[in-house]
Design a protein that fits this description.
Shape: elongated
Largest sheet: 4 strands, mixed
Strand content: 5-15%
Structural class: alpha/beta
Strand order of the largest sheet: 6-3-7-8
Distance between the termini: 38 Å
Low-confidence stretches: 1-23, 36-41, 357-363, 368-381
């Protein structure tokens, strides 16, 4: 994103504010209000940040900057900032702005320490808040262009199947006998509590962990249904029992039930199930964003075939920067694949031959259609 005249003016004001004189401020004492003769500054440099234990950074949502992925944060700029925060021994608080003007304004107002976004073409391109010379020097000393390539390779690994530790079992234990897995009795018991076909829950489990009760992802998702520790806390599943097959499945059913209620406005049960699965994978806030885009473009926001194209679209700036979108960028192709593959496997478990679900190309954003077709061609499993 280029910096136009307004940003340059704001930067000039920032520098002027940093160099200008500090006015004495009134001080309230037991005997009244007086004006302190010692100038008061609002400097908050590296030592202060380290004492506070937190680095506050501003950025924009996007695949190269910052986004949420299964409850964890990724993006080149975020990962670089996290490394820098680790270097100076503090935690990182990343706050997302709507545009560059908001970032500069908030930095100028002292609401953050730096902007983690390539605002210039020089070096890392970040902007440092006023009166933070020590922080700037520390950043310049730490930064190496090779770091960008390192974090991109790390992110690529984390987003690949190589980052998931699991054994791969057969998708069906005994086809002639109708036995899907060793955990069928648990699927039957707990799927009934949310009025799901137990074979649908089994199909979801295979997509999550390939029926490995010890599966673990880099993001921390655990067990058969890949439950995040924070989600386990929310559901009342003790972390010590998160790999227990029955308790893991029971907690997943409880979570699916919550998502069912979150999408209770979708009256058609078969449609609602698709939205629930999408939310389980990609987060229900992102799915709500896609629904809002569908409404805006005259589509039926309660019909998955009308919404999935906008889930894909959330990987593109013209969609994740749309004012209707509140939660920014998402890797929509993964979520669309997730719903499709579970339904295909569920149909196989039931012995149903059905065409693939999904939008006709004319119903989808054009680039998203191409992206989806390409994804399916290289990621069938």
């Amino acid at each position: 994103m280029k910096i136009n005249g307004i940003y340059i003016q704001l930067l000039a004001l920032l520098l002027f504010a940093a160099c200008g004189p500090k006015k004495p401020e009134p001080v309230v004492t037991p005997w009244g209000q007086i004006t302190d003769t010692i100038p008061v500054t609002d400097e908050f440099d590296l030592d202060d940040i380290q004492r506070a234990g937190e680095l506050i950074a501003l950025t924009l949502t996007g695949p190269e900057t910052y986004y949420d992925y299964h409850g964890r944060h990724l993006g080149t700029q975020y990962m670089l900032a996290q490394r820098f925060a680790d270097k100076i021994g503090v935690s990182l608080r990343m706050e997302v702005c709507r545009d560059s003007a908001e970032m500069v304004r908030r930095l100028n107002d002292g609401e953050a320490d730096l902007i983690c976004y390539p605002m210039t073409k020089k070096g890392i391109g970040w902007l440092i808040g006023k009166d933070k010379d020590d922080l700037k020097n520390e950043l310049v000393e730490w930064y190496n262009p090779k770091l960008v390539e390192e974090v991109k390779k790390e992110e690529e690994f984390l987003l690949s199947n190589k980052s998931v530790t699991r054994r791969v079992f057969a998708p069906m234990l005994n086809r002639s006998g109708g036995v899907i897995s060793h955990y069928d009795s648990y699927f039957q018991r707990y799927a009934s509590t949310i009025r799901w076909d137990w074979r649908l829950m089994a199909a979801q489990c295979y997509q999550e962990s390939t029926f490995d009760p010890q599966a673990r992802s880099w993001a921390g998702a655990c067990g058969l249904m890949q439950i995040m520790p924070a989600t386990a806390d929310h559901l009342g599943l003790p972390r010590a029992n998160i790999f227990n097959p029955e308790q893991n499945i029971a907690a997943a059913a409880k979570y699916l039930g919550e998502l069912e209620r979150n999408f209770s406005d979708i009256r058609e049960r078969s449609e609602r199930t698709k939205f629930v699965l999408a939310a389980y994978n990609g987060g229900h806030f992102h799915i709500r964003d896609a629904m809002a885009l569908a409404r805006k473009h005259g589509k039926n926001d309660h019909r998955w075939a009308d919404v999935e194209g906008f889930v894909l679209g959330l990987a593109r700036p013209e969609y994740y920067n749309d004012p209707e979108v509140k939660y920014g960028y998402m890797r929509g192709s993964e979520t669309v694949d997730y719903v499709r593959k579970i339904h295909e496997r569920w149909n196989g478990y039931r012995g149903v031959r059905a065409p693939r679900t999904g939008l006709a190309p004319s119903s989808m954003p054009q680039k998203a259609t191409h992206e989806r077709k390409k994804k399916y061609q290289i990621n069938e499993n």
